[in-house]
Amino acid sequence: MKKTLYIISVFSTVAMLFAGCKKDKPAPQPEPDEPKPLAGFTVARTDSVDFLSYQFTSTSTNYKDILWQFGDDSTSAEKAPKHRYAFDGLYHVTLTARNSQGYSAAREIILNVADPNFDRTKVGESYFATIGGTLTVSRDNGGGPNAGEGSLKVVDGDPNTKFLQSGFSGDLVMKYELKTPAVAGAYTMTSANDSPDRDPKGWILQGSEDGIRWINLHSKNNEVFANRFQRILYHFNNNVAYKFYRLSIKVNNGSRDFQMAEWTVNKKQP
Fold first, then answer.
1. Would you say the C-alpha torsion 17, 19, 20, 22 has a positive or negative sign?
2. Phi/psi zone of residue 203: left (φ > 0), alpha (ψ -120 to 50 degrees), beta?
3. Which CATH class is domain 41-113?
């Protein structure tokens, strides 16, 4: 037993000697800071005719990675990407430059993508007139669609007639099925001859390829028709040929009745 204790004592002593002779590790030196990134870029149209295409070129410095965000849910990590927008409009473009230590810098601009030949005062053909199709409504005039103020009056091309629907409660839907699909980019609505409190005030326009899945195309929440027989033109972005278009009237100006002289869905420009 004494021999065993002696051996353990010797090992303990040796271990302590080694521990006492062990050199301390030098403290790690701090990593020097890299130069901070600076973000910058230029942008230019790539074609005098194609107003939707742009060349973006980074002029950033001191970076390892860059990320472009073009404002239309598209991104790129290239230094000089080309990008084509689907529609005109205002786009928030951001370039972020980051170095290997995680420092970053960003530059942002609002890019106005505009068709120089687009005229907001003009609209193309009404597809209801040139293509034709079938109108259905969720609730019709008491006399039916062919009555003097039935639903078919809203698509007859005559602003002097109107569709009048009694018992309006914010759930009126007018759906038009075209004979053949067409790409629409505008629509018009015309107020009727009397009772401004019956005018539509808030609505949603939608399109569908199959009559089942609907896509929101445009909406208004607080529109005012200042005059009788007033035709208002609305433009929206779209590049899909829909067979079905529907207008859901949510709000009028307070009446228990709804009226409208004309509704059209149109080609965007003549």
1. positive
2. beta
3. mainly beta
The token pair that represents 138 in the structure block: 């969720």
Could you count the other beta carbons within 10 Å of the beta carbon of residue 157? 11
pLDDT in tens, 168-208: 999 999 999 999 999 999 999 999 999 999 999 999 999 99
CA 135, 141, 147 angle in degrees (round to 5)?
A: 80
Residue 23 has a pLDDT of 59
Q: Domain map of the chain by residue range?
A: 41-113, 127-266
pTM, whole model, 2 decimals? 0.80
Query: CATH says 127-266 is which class?
Result: mainly beta
Report residue 83: phi and psi, to 5°.
-140, 140
Question: How are beta strands 215-220 and 257-260 bridged, if at all?
Answer: unpaired
From the number of C-beta atoms within 10 Å of its C-beta (0-12, 13-18, 19+), residue 50 rates as exposed
